[in-house]
Amino acid sequence: MQIAKKELGVREASGRNDGPRVAAYLRYVNIGEGSPWCAAFVSWVFGQAGYSAPRTAWSPALFPVNKRTQEVSRAVVFGIYFNQLKRIAHCGFAERRDGDWLITIEGNTNMAGSREGDGVYRKRRALKAVKYFADWSNRKGGDDEI
After folding, report:
1. In what order do the strands lie in the sheet with 87-98?
2. Domains, the chain, ordered by start
3. 109 and 92 in contact (C-beta within 8 Å)?
4. Tens digit of pLDDT for each residue in 14-31?
5. CB neighbours (10 Å) of residue 141?
6. Which range, of 4-13, 17-26, 109-118, averages the lowest pLDDT?
7. With contact defined as beta carbons under 8 Å apart, do 123 and 109 qualify?
8. Which one of 31, 62, 129, 135 is at 20 to 30 Å from 55 when CA atoms are compared?
9. DSSP string covering the chain, please?
10. Predicted model pTM
């Protein structure tokens, strides 16, 4: 989470999924500038922390059955399902739980919480808005439950 926190405040250069930091996230998953980057951001953070996986720009790929968890823990990846797309279409990191709310760090969002935003933000999201949680760490159980 320290790596993700250091990225807070990163902004796109022109609002078109571009800029030096966004390009680094996308390059990490072999995708060019201009592409949505929430999953690339998640993957890049894990990569910087020494994990070889996940490494994807496709947010639904972050939630395979064997990684899903019911435990809301620090650094667990959350996914929001969009009915119009019929899939997970936005993701980020759980930082902490606050009652029925989830405090997150996520890329390609904005102050309004869009899935096509302009930077890396800390957000407050309703837990009921989250479809899945996935644990990509090596932790055994909820040793860091929030």
Report:
1. 119-126, 101-109, 87-98, 77-82, 132-134
2. 2-134 (3.90.1720.10)
3. yes
4. 999 999 999 999 999 999
5. 10
6. 109-118
7. yes
8. 129
9. -HHHHHTTT-B-SSSSS-SHHHHHHHHHTT--TTS--HHHHHHHHHHHTT------S-GGGG--GGGB-S--BTT-EEEEEETTTTEEEEEEEEEEEETTEEEEEEEEE-TT--SS-SEEEEEEEEGGG--EEE--S---SSTTB-
10. 0.93
> How far is 137 from 86, CA to CA, in rounded Å?
27
CB-based contact 99:74 (threshold 8 Å): no
- The structure tokens 């966004």 sit at 22
Q: What is the pLDDT of residues 73-107, one digit of tens each?
A: 999 999 999 999 999 999 999 999 999 999 999 99
